[in-house]
Amino acid sequence: MPVTVVHDLDFPIYSRKTSLRRIFWLTYYILFGWSQKLRKRLPRWFVLEKYYYALALAEIDRLLEAKAFFGLTKEVQEYFPELWNRLEKMGFEVRDHFHIKGPPEYGKGRWDPPLPPVKRSYATYDRRYTFLGKKDLPPNGTTVAWHVDHPLNLYDYIDFVKRCKKEGLM
C-alpha cells in the first residue's frame, strides 16, 4: 500500500499561542533589530523560516526544471553562511545581491556577476502576479524577480513556472 500524506491545516490563522510568540519576536526585532548582537538572540525557529523556504523553492525549481538562480544579500550570507553552498550543491547558480538607487523605470535590485537592470514591473513580478492578478507572461529572455521573502506567493510561483514551461519560455 502506498504512503499517503495528510497536509494538516489546523487553524485559518496561527493559534493564539503561536501568534503571541510571533508578536513578541516581531516586536523584539522591530525594537532591537538594528543591533547585530541582539539580533543573534532571535530564536532559531523564527530565523530559519526563510532559509527553509529558499531551500523548498530550490527543490521546486529542480523538480519543475525551472531556469532560476538565487541572489543572496550580504546580510543573508552572514545569517546563513552555509546557504550559498547548499544551493550550489543543488545545482543552482548563486550571486551576490544588493540594492541601489537608480532610474525609476528599473528596480533597485542588482547582482554580481551583473545582469542587465531589470525593469521595475519585472523587479516585483511576484507581487504583480499574486496581488494584482497580472498573469501576463514576460517575453522570452526576460529576467523576473520572485522574492523568497514572500512565502504566500508559492502557489502562484508554481503556476507561473508551469505556464512558462507550457509556453516554451523556460
Strand and helix map with partners:
Blueprint lengths: L15 H17 L3 H4 L4 H21 L4 E4 L1 H6 L3 H7 L3 E7 L9 E4 L7 H4 L1 H6 L23 H13 L4
Parallel strand pairs: 1-2
Antiparallel strand pairs: 2-3
Helix pairs in contact: 3-8
The CA-CA distance between the termini, in Å, is: 36 Å
Treating each run of at least 4 consecutive H or I residues as one helix, how many helices? 8
Which band does the percent of strand residues land in?
5-15%
Number of domains: 1
Unreliable stretches (pLDDT < 50, length at least 5) are none
How can the largest sheet be summarized? 3 strands, mixed
Helix/strand/pairing class, anyone? Answer: mainly alpha
How many strands? Answer: 3
Overview of the molecule:
With about 170 residues, the protein is mainly α. It has one domain. Helices cover about 45% and strands about 10% of the residues. The protein has helices at about 15-30, 35-40, 45-65, 75-80, 85-90, 120-125, 125-130, 155-165; strands at about 70, 95-100, 110. Strands 1-2-3 form a three-stranded mixed β-sheet. Helix 3 (about 45-65) packs parallel to helix 8. The radius of gyration is 18 Å and the shape is globular.
